[in-house]
Amino acid sequence: PETEKNFLGVILNESDRMTHIVQDLLTLSRFDSGRSELNLAPFDFGEAVRDVYQANRLEAQRHGHTMELELPGSLPEIVGDRERILQVMMNVVSNSIKYTPAGGHISLSCGVKDGLVRLSVQDEGQGIAPESLPHIFDRFYRTDESRARQTGGTGLGLAIVKHIALLHHARIDLQSQVGSGTTIKVTFPKA
Predict the structure, then answer these.
(1) E strands in the chain
(2) In angstroms, rounded to a whole number, what is the distance separating the alpha carbons of residues 42 and 44?
(3) Which residue among 25, 86, 120, 173 has its CA within the 20 to 30 Å range from the CA of 96?
C-alpha cells in the first residue's frame, strides 16, 4: 500500500505539471493571436496580495522556508483583470519558493508611491547571473537547465508574466545577485 500511495502521488504531481504546461502554452497562444481578452474591473489590490500569500504559505513551509507579508493598512484599488494579475503574482512568488534553497526566507511587501501600487517579492535564492538577466523574460529561457529539470520549470512562466504586465501597463523591475537572491517588483497604476 505504501508503494502504491507513492506511485499515485508521483502520477498526480506529473499530471498537474503537464496540465500547467498545457495551460501556459494555451495562454501564450491566445496572446500571440490577439484573442486574450481581459476582464477589466476595479479590485482590492491588498486583498489579492493576501490571497496569493495564503495560497503559497503552505508550499513555502513544505520547502522549509519562512514567508512574511508586509501589507500597509490600506491599499487603493487597481483596475485590471484580477485573475491575470493573480497569475503574475503567483508565478513570481512560486519562482521564489522554487529557487530558494531549503530553509530560506521570502518576503512579500506592498506600497503606494506617485499613484502606483507595488508588490515586491524578495528571496534568498540562488540569484540570476548578469548574463542571464536580459533573457529572463524570454520564452523557454531557463538559467540553469539541470536545476530546471529538478523543479519542473518550462521557461514559460516569466514570459507570461511579462505579457500580462504589458497588457496592464505595469512595470516589472528585477534585481538579482548570484548567491544572494532576487527581488522582483511589479508596479501597477492605481484605479
Answers:
(1) 41-44, 66-70, 77-80, 105-113, 116-123, 171-177, 181-189
(2) 7
(3) 25
Which residue do the cell numbers 476582464 mark?
39
Nearest to 153 by CA among 64, 85, 91: 91
Side chain identity at residue 10, one-letter code: V
d(CA 167, CA 20): 21
Cell output for 23: 495551460
User: Whose CA is closest to 164, among 62, 27, 5?
Assistant: 27
pTM equals 0.80
| Short-list 119, 115, 122, 101, CA closest to 176 | 122
In tens, the pLDDT along 40-89 reads: 899 999 999 999 999 999 889 989 999 999 998 888 899 999 988 999 99
Phi, psi of 36 (to 5 degrees): -85, 105
